[in-house]
Amino acid sequence: MKVSLFDYPLPQGLIAQEPLPTRDESRLLVVRRGDGSLSHHRFYELPFLLPDDTFLVVNDARVIPARLWGARPTGGRVEVFLVREEGSGVWRCLVRPGRRTRPGDKILFSGGRWWGEVREVFPTGERLVTFHGPGGVDRLLDEAGQVPLPPYIRRQPRPEDKERYQTVYASKKGAVAAPTAGLHFTPRVLGALKERGIEVFPITLHVGPGTFRPVKVEEVEAHKMEEEYYEISPEVASRIEGARREGRRLLAVGTTVTRALESAADKEGQLVRLSGWTDLFIYPGYRFKVVDALLTNFHLPRSTLLMLVCAFGGRELVMRAYQEALEKRYRFYSYGDAMLVM
Prior knowledge:
Layout: E1 27-32, E2 37-42, H1 46-49, E3 54-59, E4 61-63, E5 67-71, E6 77-87, E7 90-96, E8 106-109, E9 114-121, E10 127-132, H2 136-144, H3 161-164, E11 172-175, H4 187-195, E12 200-205, E13 228-231, H5 234-245, E14 249-253, H6 255-264, E15 275-278, E16 293-297, H7 304-313, H8 315-327, E17 338-341
Parallel strand pairs: 1-17, 3-12, 3-14, 4-11, 14-16
Antiparallel strand pairs: 1-2, 5-6, 6-7, 7-10, 8-9, 9-10, 12-13, 13-15, 16-17
């Protein structure tokens, strides 16, 4: 299958650089697989668009301020992007400029109050870094870390991004990118869901930087996904299983929830692998075992996220929906609008 099947022309002006003042005022394109129809709404209408027998699963991962600026002891600015925790005070990192950063090198932060020592260089170019200083990595990030806004947001992070680039229900620290389908939820929307008796269950998948990396191969099947860590509590897994036995429909809020649930399920759709690292790659031809409906943002051309949405909604229908979104000037990517595939 050619990656070019998932390409589309996107004007730069439709890439959202700022969030809307009110989260749930974002637009919502509803795609119905049954009859192929499309309809246009606002996100605050979501609770009233769902069938009574729906329940939601959300990703409660919290984004850490993972981008740091440091300096070599001899001078020279260094950017360090934390990717994945490997142990207490030990992180796999992206370091720029990387070619001059070797094992044993030190990087100073905040005038030397904290420092990192490079321990290993991986074939991927990532570095294993041990951090030292008062209060450990958490305090370093709180005091000096920047919100890791995606590369297509072409501005510097601002203080308000620390909360705006989080879902209102974010709680489990560790992600370096937001589960963006959840950014539209507000207490108003969650309250309306509760009034309708629509339950919301949290799971966790810590989004990694691989979500932004382009697919560089020509054939879809040749692409290798980067691993991301997920976790589903036994209590939540039991409640999800109970709801499905009752015949209720599972709405996955985002591609991250979809990957976590499908990774956790066995061939019969039972949630049996409740935590671990997943490199599951979902593209057209995949048979979904758990998810019945999908809420998602609009994704990059030729991206694995768009391929997942096409696997769920059907490539022709999803690409037609994208064309409609382009014509109606929807806002794309992380701070953009949303799509609901029923």
